[in-house]
Amino acid sequence: ACLEQNLEVDCFEKTSSIGGLWNYRPNEDNVGANVMASTVVGVNTSKELMAYSDFPPPPEWPNFMHHSYVQKYLEMYAKHFDLIKYIHFNTEVIEVRRVEEDDQDLFKKWSVSLSSGITKIYSAVLICTGHHCEPRIPTEINGLTNFKGRILHSKHYHDYKGFENKRVMLIGIGNSSLDIAVELAGIAKNSLKQSSIKVVISTRRGTWLFNRITQKGLPYDVVYQSRFYDWLMRTVPWSIANDFHEWRMQQRTDHDLYGLRPPHRFFQQHPAVNDALTNLLASGCDDINYIDEYSVYTKDGRCYQMDVIILCTGYSFGFPFIKPTGLVPVTEDNQVDLYKLILPPSPSAKGLAVIGLVQPIGSVSPIAEMQARWVTSILAKGLNSLPNETKMREEIACRRERMRRQYFESAKHTIQVQYLPYMDELAEQIGCSPPNIKK
């Protein structure tokens, strides 16, 4: 996007190669969040709808790609557009600091201090670190620190090795938890040695379990992210839409039988997507009451003796490297004030943007592309078209209120977006909206 607007660009990458989350590197400690060895696309989107608009993946590749295919796709993209020469590998950004300039300047100047000891000056800085930053460790679980077994966050789970013949408790029921549960339970079920891995998932509120494939065999996002479906959802009463989808979910998995039914409606959560869990479930497990040295006690009175606890409790994000602090403030519950979920509204942050800090029902990649095109279009033309700080904050407040009214209160819902409406919102402003009728 920067190159298309004839902007000079440097990209700094802390590790030795591209790929980020999708580049499976289990033996490196400084790579941030990483996929599991067996991971199929983490956001569970089909290959066409997770691809960039100018580079479709090979048609012979599977609809839902293993992480190795995603990594290969990113490498092919970088090679096709000759992007590697703009990337400085093994280079960590230590600090991004605003340089004091005349307040009338269109852009602020930013000094970027690097791990190499070099400091560079830029007119704009785009932060593309995503939201899988710091593992969130729950402090509200009574007795967690008393546990004498092994405790780890799902970030540090790579594969089943080392968990053979263990009793494993998973706390949380997001996509990472479901993927780990399926892998461990599947190993126990299919092992010729009859591994006695025991897996228990504890969830406070349950979840609606979604499948990747619709009843007609199509990838779910091909159906549910179509313009017809978007129109339908804006037309049908919200309660009826929830009733219908919950009925469909019940046809595949009895959420009551397995203790999965949550107190909220289907469209009040980010969906948990998994095709295999239903075949491996035995019974439900209630929320945790307390933990002692070797056991987990649930609120329904049951006791589980455990060897391992895996915290599938998500991530927190922040920008501690931005100085002065407070230019992009993030609260403990992951609330962040960004205009269009991209720009800090403060006049002191002119030229600073955040790309990819979204949680869509769909893939992040196309949204990050659209955000980058939106930002670089503004940078190329100037910032005069942007509203003032007051209007930016008014829109931020309106967006937050819409999210509050739709989703149950959770740190994972603070950056939630609806895929098509959000993409249309940005596309319209930069003149790249697709036609509603294809000729």
Radius of gyration over all CA atoms, rounded: 23 Å
What would CATH call the architecture of the largest domain?
Answer: 3-Layer(bba) Sandwich
Distance between the termini: 27 Å
DSSP helical segment count: 8
SS elements, strand count: 21
Quaternary organization: single chain
CATH C-level class of the largest domain = Alpha Beta
EC number: 1.-.-.-
Catalytic activity: NADPH + O2 + H(+) = H2O2 + NADP(+); heptan-2-one + NADPH + O2 + H(+) = pentyl acetate + NADP(+) + H2O; trimethylamine + NADPH + O2 = trimethylamine N-oxide + NADP(+) + H2O; heptan-4-one + NADPH + O2 + H(+) = propyl butanoate + NADP(+) + H2O
Pfam families: FMO-like
Keywords: Endoplasmic reticulum, FAD, Flavoprotein, Lipid metabolism, Membrane, Methylation, Microsome, Monooxygenase, NADP, Oxidoreductase, Phosphoprotein, Transmembrane, Transmembrane helix
Tell me what the structure shows.
The protein is an alpha/beta fold and 439 residues long. It has two domains: 3-16 and 89-134 and 315-430, 3-Layer(bba) Sandwich (FAD/NAD(P)-binding domain), CATH 3.50.50.60; 136-311, FAD/NAD(P)-binding domain (3-Layer(bba) Sandwich). Helix content is 24%, strand content 16%. The protein has helices at 67-80, 175-190, 220-224, 227-235, 238-252, 364-381, 389-406, 419-430, and strands at 11-12, 87-88, 93-99, 109-114, 119-122, 125-127, 134-135, 150-153, 167-171, 198-202, 209-210, 272-273, 288-291, 295-298, 303-305, 308-311, 315-316, 322-323, 352-354, 359-360, 416-417. The strands form eight sheets. The protein has a four-stranded mixed β-sheet with strand order 5-4-3-18, with no helix packed on it. Strands 8-16-9-10 form a four-stranded parallel β-sheet, with helices on one face. Helix 1 links the parallel strand 1 and strand 2 (87-88). The protein starts with 10 loop residues before the first strand and ends in a 9-residue tail after the last helix. Keywords: Endoplasmic reticulum, FAD, Flavoprotein, Lipid metabolism, Membrane, Methylation, Microsome, Monooxygenase, NADP, Oxidoreductase, Phosphoprotein, Transmembrane, Transmembrane helix. One of its GO terms (cellular component) is endoplasmic reticulum membrane.
